[in-house]
Queue: 2 jobs
Job 1
Amino acid sequence: MDRHSPFSYRCGACGRCCHNQVIALSPAELLALARASGIATGVARARYTERRGSLLRFRTDGGCAALEGVRCSIHPGRPLACRIYPLGLERTPDGDRFIRLEPAQGSAGRYGVEGIVGDYLTDQGVDELLGMAERYRPLIAAMRDKIETLVDFDKIEPREFWRHATAEALRESNFDANRLIDALFDPDGVGAARASIEATIAAHLPILHAMIASATDPAKLAAAAILLAVSLGYSPAEAIRFPTEQQDRLK
Ligand code: SF4
């Protein structure tokens, strides 16, 4: 489906879809969630997330950490996946595609074709939040560029380097300390706290660029690049760059 495809959905407010999901969070989404809750990003990360802030946390009973009864307690700051639901978003080099997800068991939601996908997304505030999330994407290229200044890929096997970085980025526990990842998912904690989400992002990005410029550990940069790419809805490949001759061989 694309933005012009027929689609409508009426939420039944049953809370069924707020159980047992895997929902990635980008830095902007975590920030929106924190501002909607009136708490600092570090508190929001501890209360509502796992995997260093990049995943929404679900309780052992299956319910989202933000679910109170059948009500979303952070509704104005809910993540993109919750706004887009019951559609799924696929980010491809050719543009965004949407898939219709199966309803949660017992869902009171009602599917229809009275509108189009694009109007549904606008009603849910998707484009505004997606735009804020995308402002972090240039950091991935900045990290890749910095890595190339720090690693001699004639001596270090690139595939092994990136394989290790991917495993480290997606580790759910026992991961290495990583100041850059901490800073990505805690703008308030690194001095970027402002009243609005926009102003916080504007203060956050230069801090992150400065941290990348002064970084000395390529493994930590690579893990941060991959985690950021995945949190923005891209595959790890978005962050990975091989030396030119290897890249040519992969084509
Ligand atoms: S953030 Fe809100 S809408 Fe999203 S899964 Fe949690 S309770 Fe449901």
Job 2
Amino acid sequence: MSGPVVVVGGGIAGLATAYRLRRAGREAFVLEAEEEPGGKVRSAEVGGLELEAGPDSLLGRKPWAVELCRELGLGDDLVPAAPVPTHVYTDRGLLRFPSGPFGISTDLGELLRWPGMSLAGKLRAAGDLALPGRAGDEDESLGSLLRRRIGDEATERLVAPLLGGLFAGDVDRLSVRATFPELAAWEREHGSLLLGARAEARAAAARRRGGEGPPPMFLRLRGGLRRLVLALVEALGRERLLLGSPARAIERRSGGYRVRTDDRELEADAVVLACPAYAAAELVEPLAPAVAPLLAAIPYVSTAVVLLVYPAGTADALPVSSGFVVPRGKLAISAATFVSRKWPEEAFDDRAVVRCFLGAAGSEDLVEEPDADIVEGVARQLAAVVGLPDRPEAARVIRWPRAMPQYEVGHLDRVTEIEAGLPPGVFVVGQAYRGAGIPDCVRQANELAARITAAPTSPASG
Ligand SMILES: Cc1cc2nc3c(=O)[nH]c(=O)nc-3n(C[C@H](O)[C@H](O)[C@H](O)COP(=O)(O)OP(=O)(O)OC[C@H]3O[C@@H](n4cnc5c(N)ncnc54)[C@H](O)[C@@H]3O)c2cc1C
């Protein structure tokens, strides 16, 4: 019989790991520092509405979180986003993206007619079709790949706001391999991003014709993603989740580990660190001094979400759109979701509901402003861009300090080095490592639990 596993961190990654271990018959306990489980999955009450304060949707093409929801009996409450386009902020106001994945056009004519860029910028983007491919396959930044293929203007005005925005990151630092490896594959296989995007779109169309419809791009959970957290806790067993119990130290003991909190000691055969990398760094320092600096070197960016509920009669002021992204430095907000368009709900009545993002690599100082100033500034920008009233009826700022790990160039090599350097029986999982969204956290949890249960003997040798 194998001994228990202690999981440090009760966010999605930690809870999913513990749940999978329990399903495989292994005892597992979760230590969570806060009084509530779920980590970044949180809701907030604004104007009588319960709105998502952290993540709000699951990416359909990465099936692991959706599968977990179904497994936990939440399948009927998965709701696809309304079929409305996404816009990008330009000097000419909001424009629809040219058709194609990741803002990379599949239609040259449409790209050349797109009014959001100069003619020179569009011709340079079309140059992607003729430029030779890159020699070598070492990791590079998204910015380096995009600028090389489609030029600076298309990179900065079209693609970077979408791709960099997902990480609140700077495309000139983010790793292609760790974020969007398909872009490198397109260049390798088709010699061009535009041709790669077109091949991707054709393959999707063929699948649709063959009756294999693509999964919805985004899904939300009716009642909020918090329900996934609660369902995981329920399935795990509430008694296995210790809230308000930050792990303070991990010590080796004969045959395993001892995890200390302020008032407890838990014996474990294995320890899973599902907390942020900087917290994991402190915990592993005495056990693996060479690994701690590698964990601590994963940079994090602070962001804020601003939730705004507008007065009755404002719903139609919003364009028919899921929202917009903003090229770096053009506005204080980096993106906005038109919640009442993308995820319409009866409870909204005819009120416009908007969620804005503030702060990203290079503009984190905005998050430090007082709430009232943030709300006023954000509302003013929204009023100028989409014609909403100057003031919302209710608003709330939720700050996310050090919440977005940055997958910089070489990230995956660093993660491999971390994993290899940890002592036997100590593992890391979650947003900081091999995929930053909830679906990838669930996939990592599934894979780690399978690895731990496949090696049932006591891992540490004292
Ligand atoms: C504003 C925002 C919007 C997002 N939108 C989306 C989205 O729409 N879709 C999507 O898929 N993803 C989204 N994400 C990313 C998503 O939130 C994360 O991928 C996911 O929630 C990370 O889960 P995790 O378990 O790895 O980490 P966390 O949720 O960060 O959980 C880690 C937990 O560890 C705990 N902890 C820390 N130190 C200790 C300790 N010493 N002892 C015990 N516990 C400790 C923390 O309290 C925390 O609960 C968003 C993130 C943010 C910030």
